[in-house]
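Let's sit down with a protein and look at its sequence and fold side by side. We need material for that, and I hope you will provide a protein of your own picking. Once you have written the record down, we can walk along the chain together.

***
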Amino acid sequence: MQDKQYNEMLYKIALTLLPGVGGVGARKLLAHTKSAEGVFREKKSTLAKIQGIRESNLEVFNDTSEYIIRAEEELEFIEKHNIKPYFLTDDDYPYRLKQCSDSPLMIYTTGNADLNSKYVLSVVGTRKATEYGREMCDKIIKGLADLGVLIVSGLAYGVDTAAHKCAIDASLPTVGVLAHGLDRIYPFANVQLAQQMNENGGLITEYVSKTEPDRENFPMRNRIIAGLADATIVIEASSKGGALITADISNSYNRDVFAVPGRIGDTYSEGCNNLIKTNRAALLQKAEDIMYIMGWDSKPIKPQPVQRKLFINLNPEQESLIKILEQDGECSIDHLSVKSTLSPSKVANALLSLEFEGLIKTLPGKIYKILN
């Protein structure tokens, strides 16, 4: 790593370590200083003038040496273990996750997974999966094998472990989101599974090394599980638990949620049945249900070129979206927003106008395509 890159990464890591600043505060500081190093170089009196920044949260800037030293230790760990760090402002930070208002400033990854894969699904559920849950997990994931879907889960016992194993059996890439640093695997029983995942997929966390798998970290990591994916699948869940938290987070991100129904009265079907009953999840019985609702074609057809003369009256924003749809085929609003650098609201307005003109079509799953 070159000196400039080293310094940039050093301050990025250090920024995530500052107590009291938080993700929202860090974003405001970055918007003002334009770089993580700038946050540390700027005068505290200047930072205090930034709207929304509490002066009490800036006391940490009186002496940041211990956080710089800890960041140096983490950089050494990263380089030694071939870990790939992604900062929120990096171009290759997962674009789906970047669209979430509470996305982590920094994530650390191992393996070879493409976190910007065309299709990404998160699979969550109870740690006490039944035979029915494992069978449904296997059936659904293997049914998606031809699409090359990236499967995301939490490497926990039960449904998470089943999802990762099913993905490996189906030759699909799979990523485990951890609630601790990459210097350990929790639960320890999944060490060998994690090694297999690194061969076709990987591990991801927002936590630096030496971070324990504390209880409060697990709800936090659930937002990454939801944010990385186009949709979240709940296989089995009781009336309360982490799987339902992930489903609610996914809904808050305006992402699709699916739930596998179960027999009335079964403990680990109660959460799924309630999600479906309250219209917080679509009923899921087979892989084809996902393909239909999400507008995913098991045999994608390359979009035909669209005659440019049809669009002579388009404004620049509409023209930009049409070009992206021509090049990439069917796209979500998130994808279009990232590629066009337009805000999601501007993209939505432009898409509505294009649909009124009969130039594009909305598919299930909030996906858009050009009409030839």
